[in-house]
């Protein structure tokens, strides 16, 4: 007899069909206007051969090969839950006693899974905080650079990760929308926490139907859906700031800058304006490859039409990624549009489902209460290799020198640094330094393979939870669908037993079991929502119904309207209360790589400095999965070429190298090499290569830095260099490579089955 139960993932709400204890199929959530294709991979994932069936310990670690030992090459030894609990509790206690709480790195960056209670990273951090604390990380890989910069410029990160001006307001008031990096359809498949409504594409379509002209400024035409009929302006990667400056120069020539707004709402125009004098369209054209006339036309359009400006998050994941963001704010300031209905500037409309798409009333989301961390040490998220390589050193960040503690233990739950970090060969070397590395994972992903102690975690389908994405209008009851696979356990339960061994179980569990927690989170949310004027139904009704719908907001939303109307009464949270086109704060930091106003700084790697045979590699968000998640599913598998991750180049570049679609190629630079399967497009700028992230790192010789990744993980190629010493973000997109046909026998992809396992 089949059963159907509600559940959720970052790629959407769904109903699981269960037959004889297995999920056979998942069906999209009824109210979802555009259910994502990724749901097709869900059943594959839960029962995949790459599930971790029980706890394991690295053989070398058991033998005492710890600090300094290479990781990733050893066999794993199966151990019992009792043994692994004792081992970990012993290590935590020893390291805290011998080296202090800061010797444990628990930053554990990663998306984990949907479901607010069983969110692995939150569980781990709560566990570590209650046990004495841990060294942590700040900001997200997604937009680390912007997160550190924008508070200096606009006094807020709301334009990036908060409630941005809605598509409905844009549709009503704007006539043109400049999209740096486009509005890639694939990015709307996901929202953190799971979403009941994929409004991403429908919102754009409605804006276009209402008369908004979209301009896709990107090396790739496919960065806007064909149906949107966007204009395409191909641009060399990493040169957007130069284009913005060329447009600004032309706006000045047209006498368009809104001098009144610049005087009343901004500081620094007097300093920025003179620097734009030699940023002519001809200057910008030589850098960007965009024709002079196109730049002039863009400026004329902006001078006359109500406009919204946006930039994909990817553009700040590049060398000096501060600059395009700051310059885009400057452009909107010059136009005086910040805070005008449906106009202005915001970041990421094309980066994720939910940006400006929902008209959810201002209400909280259910979440796990965190515990204060007593250790004050942290790194900006993408500086993990620096941290491990440089114990006792310092790292400049946002005007401070951060002390780097001596990390003896690393613990990751719900994230995959061997997916998300750049220059994996450097990471692999740095990763050998700690004494002990613990990873909680449902699958044998690359981070689990590079751990000393592996705890098998359940997936969302094996537990009860609440699904909620902050911008979505639905809250999901996630019902357990199947029993835990193998000996997998919920992260919470595994941590509760370790807390028990360390003497703080009750503080960690607060004497609640899973359902008591789920109910507790719901009740907390119900009370908080009630305080804000809307009373959700009782827990029983919610659980039986499978979801709750949160009311819509009544009016289209525009950011900064109060500030626009009265900047004295409603100042920004910057030192001057205004938009800072020049920052005294940043000037005082005196940084060589981040001047105090928007500036053109040529990227360290780009087509501007490339050799004849080099290509600019953009490592994009995958259309077939979420990062490394679902790589084992059918949607990702169907898109691969002989099991390798596709890499797309232009027809001209393929012809130059005598390559054809379907060829297996070796892509390489001084940092590393991987294989890929070739795809060819006419609508991609010559000199550019596109390869998605997320194919699980599969080195030919596991544990040996520099080994060829046979599967196609672009992070063996991407540089691990900070965007600047102000923000210390990642600069993955500034990456040059060469490629040629792979002529040898094709090494098998081995990463989707467990690593070698030996009995003790
Ligand atoms: N070159 C390059 N690199 C990039 C980017 C890029 O553009 N280019 N983009 C960056 C960005 S924006 C991001 S956000 C990061 C993403 O990097 P991550 O968030 O680290 O990637 P995920 O694959 O989502 O990792 C989540 C992990 O949690 C595991 N997991 C899922 N459910 C559970 C659970 O219940 N319990 C436990 N314990 N584990 C669970 C999954 O199996 C998966 O391995 O990558 C970054 N890396
Ligand atoms: N399907 C799917 N969707 C996702 C994710 C996923 O893993 N899978 N991950 C989610 C996450 S965590 C995040 S942070 C967001 C990230 O969202 P983004 O950062 O916006 O996504 P990307 O695909 O990296 O980049 C968007 C587009 O920018 C263009 N681009 C890259 N470099 C340049 C440049 O220098 N100049 C210009 N003009 N264009 C450029 C590329 O052609 C690319 O298609 O995506 C989210 N959405
Ligand atoms: Mo991200």
UniProtKB/TrEMBL annotation:
GO terms for biological process: anaerobic respiration. Residues 51-500 form the Molybdopterin oxidoreductase domain. The keyword Secreted does not apply. Residues 8-47 form the Molybdopterin oxidoreductase N-terminal domain. The keyword Phosphoprotein does not apply. Keywords: Metal-binding, Molybdenum, Oxidoreductase, Transferase. CDD domains: MopB_CT_DMSOR-BSOR-TMAOR (cd02793). Residues 615-735 form the Molybdopterin dinucleotide-binding domain. This is Asp-tRNA(Asn)/Glu-tRNA(Gln) amidotransferase GatCAB subunit C. The lineage of its organism: Bacteria, Pseudomonadati, Pseudomonadota, Alphaproteobacteria, Acetobacterales.
């Amino acid at each position: 007899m089949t059963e159907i139960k509600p559940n959720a993932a970052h790629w959407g709400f769904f109903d699981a069909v269960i037959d004889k204890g297995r999920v056979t199929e998942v069906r999209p959530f009824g109210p979802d206007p555009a259910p994502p294709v990724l749901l097709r991979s869900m059943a594959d994932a839960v029962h995949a051969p790459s599930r971790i069936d029980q706890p394991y310990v690295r053989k070398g670690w058991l033998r005492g090969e710890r600090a300094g030992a290479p990781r990733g090459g050893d066999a794993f030894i199966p151990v019992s839950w009792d043994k692994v609990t004792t081992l970990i509790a012993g290590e935590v206690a020893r390291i805290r006693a011998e080296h202090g709480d800061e010797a444990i790195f628990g930053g554990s960056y990663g998306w984990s899974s949907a479901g607010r209670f069983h969110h692995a990273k939150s569980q781990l951090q709560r566990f570590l905080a209650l046990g004495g604390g841990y060294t942590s990380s700040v900001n997200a890989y997604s937009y680390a650079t912007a997160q550190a910069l924008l508070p200096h410029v606009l006094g807020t990160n709301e334009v990036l990760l908060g409630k941005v001006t809605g598509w409905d307001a844009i549709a009503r008031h704007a006539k043109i929308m400049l999209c740096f990096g486009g509005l890639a359809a694939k990015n709307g498949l996901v929202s953190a926490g799971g979403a009941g409504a994929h409004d991403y594409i429908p919102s754009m379509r409605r804006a276009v139907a209402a008369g908004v002209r979209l301009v896709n400024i990107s090396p790739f035409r496919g960065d806007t859906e064909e149906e949107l009929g966007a204009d395409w302006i191909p641009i060399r990667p990493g040169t957007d700031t130069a284009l913005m400056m060329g447009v600004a120069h032309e706006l000045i020539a047209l006498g368009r800058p809104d001098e009144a707004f610049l005087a009343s709402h901004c500081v620094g125009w007097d300093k920025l304006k003179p620097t734009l004098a030699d940023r002519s369209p001809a200057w910008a054209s030589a850098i960007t490859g965009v024709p002079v006339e196109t730049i002039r036309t863009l400026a004329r359009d902006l001078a006359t039409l109500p406009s919204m400006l946006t930039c994909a998050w990817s553009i700040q994941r590049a060398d000096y990624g501060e600059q395009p963001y700051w310059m885009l704010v400057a452009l909107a300031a010059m136009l005086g549009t910040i805070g005008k209905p449906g106009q202005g500037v915001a970041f990421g409309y094309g980066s994720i489902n939910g940006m400006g798409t929902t008209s959810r009333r201002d209400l909280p989301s259910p979440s796990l209460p965190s515990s204060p961390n007593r250790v004050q040490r942290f790194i900006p998220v993408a500086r993990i290799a620096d941290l491990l390589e440089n114990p006792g050193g310092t790292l400049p960040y946002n005007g401070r020198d951060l002390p780097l503690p001596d990390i003896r233990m690393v613990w990751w739950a719900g994230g995959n640094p061997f997916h998300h970090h750049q220059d994996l060969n450097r990471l692999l070397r740095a990763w050998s330094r700690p004494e002990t590395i613990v990873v909680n994972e449902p699958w044998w992903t690359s981070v689990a393979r590079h751990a000393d102690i592996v705890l098998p975690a359940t997936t969302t389908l094996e537990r009860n939870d609440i699904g909620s994405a902050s911008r979505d209008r639905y809250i999901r009851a996630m019902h357990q669908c199947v029993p835990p696979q193998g000996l997998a356990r919920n992260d919470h339960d595994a941590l509760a037993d370790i807390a028990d061994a360390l003497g703080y179980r009750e503080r960690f569990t607060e004497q609640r079991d899973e359902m008591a927690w789920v109910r507790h989170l719901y009740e907390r949310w119900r009370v908080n929502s009630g305080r804000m004027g809307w009373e959700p139904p009782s827990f029983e009704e919610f659980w039986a119904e499978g979801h709750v719908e949160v009311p819509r907001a009544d009016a289209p939303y525009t950011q900064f309207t109060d500030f626009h109307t009265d900047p004295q009464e409603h100042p920004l949270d910057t030192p001057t209360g205004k938009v800072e086109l020049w920052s005294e704060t940043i000037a005082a930091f005196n940084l060589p790589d981040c001047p105090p106003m928007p500036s053109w700084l040529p990227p360290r790697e780009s087509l501007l400095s490339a050799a004849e045979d080099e290509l600019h590699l953009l490592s994009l968000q995958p259309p077939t999965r979420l990062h490394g998640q679902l790589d084992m599913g059918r949607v990702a598998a169907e898109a691969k070429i002989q099991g390798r991750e596709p890499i797309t180049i232009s027809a001209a570049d393929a012809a130059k190298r005598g390559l054809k679609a379907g060829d297996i190629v070796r892509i390489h630079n001084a940092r590393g090499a991987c294989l890929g399967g070739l795809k060819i497009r006419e609508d991609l700028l010559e000199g550019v290569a596109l390869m998605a992230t997320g194919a699980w790192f599969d080195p030919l010789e596991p544990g040996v830095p520099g080994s060829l990744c046979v599967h196609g993980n672009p992070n063996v190629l991407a540089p691990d260099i900070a965007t600047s010493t102000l923000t210390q973000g990642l600069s993955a997109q500034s990456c040059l490579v060469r490629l040629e046909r792979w002529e040898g026998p094709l090494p098998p992809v081995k990463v989707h089955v467990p690593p070698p396992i030996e009995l003790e």
